[in-house]
Amino acid sequence: MELLIKNGSVYDPSNGIKGDKTDISIKDGKIVEKVSSNASVIDAGGRLVMPGGVDAHSHIAGAKVNMGRIMRPEDTRAGIKPRTKITRPCTGYTVPNVYAMGYRYAQMGYTTVFEAAQAIMKARHTHEELEEIPIIDKGALTLFGSNWPTMDFVREKNMDKLAAYVAWGLLASRGFGIKCVNPGGGEMWGFGKNVTGLDDVVPNFDVTPKDIIVSLMKVNEMLGLPHSVHLHCNNLGKPGNYKTTLASMELAKQVKPSKDRQVLHVTHVTFNCWGGTNWGDFESKADEIANYLNNSENITTDMGQLIFGSATTMTADGPVQYANAKLLHAKWANGDVELEDASGVVPIFYAKQVSIHAIMWAMGLELALLTKDPYKVLLTTDHPNGGPFVNYPEVIALLMSNKKRQEEIKTLHEAVHKRTKIPGIERELDFNDIAIMTRAGHAKVLGLLDTKGHLGVGADADIAIYDIKPDQIDPSVEHAKIKSAFQSAAYTIKGGEVVVKDGQITATPMGRTYWVDASVPDEHTEIMMKDIRMKFKNYYSINLANYMVQDEYLTHPKVVRAGVIPAEVS
Amino acid sequence: MQTVTLKPIKEIKISVEAENISPDKFAGKTEKDIQSLEAWMGNQKTTLGELFSVKAEGSGAAADTKIVMDGNFSRIKRIGEGMTAGLIIIKGNVDMHLGAKMSGGKISVTGNVDSWAGREMKGGELIIEGNAGYYLGAGYRGETCGMRGGKITVLGNALDFLGEHMCGGEIIVKGNAGILPGLSNNGGKIVIEGNTSRPGSEMSKGTIIINGLVDEMMPVFKAEGTEAVDGVTYRKYTGDVIVNGKGVLYLK
Ligand SMILES: [Zn+2]
Predict the structure, then answer these.
(1) A232 Cα distance to chain centroid
(2) Is A74 close to B204, i.e. CB distance below 8 A?
(3) Lesser CB count within 10 Å: N end or C end of chain A?
């Protein structure tokens, strides 16, 4: 199978291509130097061509997502679309069904998406859903921040054991990297409490959130994992939490990256760049976070942009969800994952005239516009916490047009003028910045830049063509056109196959699931497993034999090797 | 002015999704147009013309459109769904979701209506001369707001959970109501002339007036003495105290 894309106006940041008219040759699902004259041809006609979109942080599969569906039948009704000859029925807006997840991402030109949080114990559920999401490649980050073995090995200061546990946990969950949510807080929530800062001691374990974060960063680099530690900071959802976020970022200085990427990814900053001391003096400190990012290396973030309307908050941060449910008088689901973590799900409606929501809307945009290097701020909505991922085109248009932002600001609560800097920010991002924030940056942060997020020879042939001629449009003025073009790709090509044409699904191949097989010395695994077997014998409600995700759960696996021992390339 | 008359032409045993029966959908349409409007009967696609005889006279906007339905419509669901204006007169019984999400206009029914009549209604008026089923003026599964505005009057009885999650508007039941009227409601006014049981549980706002007997009270209200409403003296309660509710319950 050969394909040639001609006359595209190509934006491929990691290969330094900024709108040049370049042809792209595709053979057997990969981008190649050239193709024969038998290749089928797509004439892009000067339209915008980018690598397929990559999303490093979204909640697309697993126990929390499904809890959202169960508790929100009204959301299911909000996005109903009957089946067609090639697509299955779609439902939902904030918590779509599995099919809609794949179709809707592909329709926006996205081809790779990572679920940002799975507990090892719930990983089978995650993979059962991932196996049903069509088209896109995917993977899942595994929660390690409040796990009993993590905290035991941190207290023992035994990094070999911790590395062995992480490697085993990734295998057990077929996970891709280390997610750390409100470290220590998940455990304390079991007692109805929470940690309040990086130096609080977690009872019964005698470790602090700071110890957990630093230790996980150390073993992440010992193992040479493709991605870095992915951190949801402590104190999320509390006014004044930007200080905790800055202090957490400061910890990254203690660890050297093992690869050309960050050592710490701080996620959904919209929820943890909060100033003030209460809801009355609540204000944005996104500028402080941006300032820190501008003066530091090795840290990346994502926006977690707020979208007005319906959202469903879902996180392993159990205590913050209890607080949310109380504050909003909303439906609340609470989950306890035995020795591993907590979780909570709460629906929310973000309203333009609610001061807190208007200020939060500004935070994500401020972060993206005040941080100079777009590789340091990825475009996300922390789907569906800040809003559903189908709104990425809205965020793109906001970032590219100050005019659109000013129009929006006129409709918001006046607090947006006094408590944020957004009204005075004139910067407008260009197509190259957007290509970084929606593709190249995500691929780099995930450690997948060899095959994802770019269009050089050897990359996966995941490509999006949008109905915009970059040299003939002024995004600042024609922001509505920008939004609608990114909502509905002219073409989405996944692994060399046209899966979307003119915004309609044309094929539904099955994507692959990425996971990391990290090797450690056998003797470290043996010592670590003694503790694990004890935990299962004494505490877990299930048997070790029923715990591991088996290969049967991944019908299209893509294994990435890592480890303390240099692994042979397979 | 446009008048459209619908009569069943056969016995309908399988439920029909008939959200197309609405002044908004009929306005300015010919008989033929109306006959060809879609409806689903079970899992089969059909048309209004296949199910009903359609007679249309005159022409007009939705506000000037009157639909007269004569016969047994007890398997016809979603009549008047989302309507914004106009009039529907039903001489007979109807199935579920009558006038759901309507925001204006008026529907009157001489017979009985099944569950979910007036659910998530925003405005307009619904008059039911017979009895109403469950969840009158409520929110459908998962919704945090049921009825938000408008008025529902039932001359007969209503079954359980009337006005659940109600956020505004008014429901008047001349007869008796089933258990838990105004469950979790957050605004609006409910008046029950007859008897009921366990009213206002989990209510955070809104008013419930009961002129008949209350079989059982939930122990979640605070007694506030007596108060006169329109010249009638009631025992006044506020609650639900468990949710810090500011709802008001008036009992005889
Ligand atoms: Zn998240």
Answers:
(1) 11
(2) no
(3) C
CA distance A417 to A424: 9
Q: Please name the amino acid found at residue B34.
A: I
Closest chain A CA to residue B140: A74
The alpha carbon of residue B141 is apart from the nearest alpha carbon of chain A, in Å, by: 6
Which amino acid is residue A410, in one-letter code? K
Give the model's confidence band at A35: pLDDT under 50 very low, under 70 low, under 90 confident, else very high: very high
Per-residue confidence (pLDDT) for residue B173, from 0 to 100: 98
Per-residue pLDDT of B156-190, as tens digits, reads 999 999 999 999 999 999 999 999 999 999 999 99
pLDDT tens-digit readout, A57-86: 999 999 999 999 999 999 999 999 999 999
A164 exposure class (CB count in 10 Å sphere: 0-12, 13-18, 19+): buried
Span A255-270, pLDDT tens digits:
999 999 999 999 999 9
Residues of A in contact with B139 (CB under 8 A): 74
Residue A481: Cβ within 10 Å count: 15
Give pLDDT, residue B117: 98
- At position B11, the amino acid (one-letter code) is E
- One-letter amino acid of A332: W
As a whole number of angstroms, the distance between CA A13 and CA A231 comes to 26
| pLDDT at residue A327, rounded to an integer | 87
Distance from the alpha carbon of residue A294 to the mean position of ligand 1, in angstroms: 24
Quick check: B204 and A77 CB within 8 A?
Answer: no
Per-residue model confidence as pLDDT tens digits over B85-106: 999 999 999 999 999 999 999 9
For testing contact with chain B, the best of A329, A332, A345, A348 (most B CBs within 10 A): A329
Per-residue model confidence (pLDDT) at position A565: 62
Q: A536 alpha carbon to ligand 1 midpoint, in Å?
A: 28
Tell me the two tokens of residue A509.
């191949």
**Residue pairs spanning A and B at CB distance below 8 A:** 20
Distance from CA of B97 to the nearest CA of A (A): 15
Question: What confidence tier does A570 reach under pLDDT thresholds 50, 70, 90?
Answer: very low
Block residue for tokens 């006038």: B99
Q: Which of A8, A6, A142, A15 is nearest to A439 (CA)?
A: A15
Buried-exposed string A490-510: b where 16+ CB fall within 10 A, e elsewhere: bbbbbbbbbbbbebebeebee
Residue B243 CA to residue A461 CA, distance in Å, equals 55
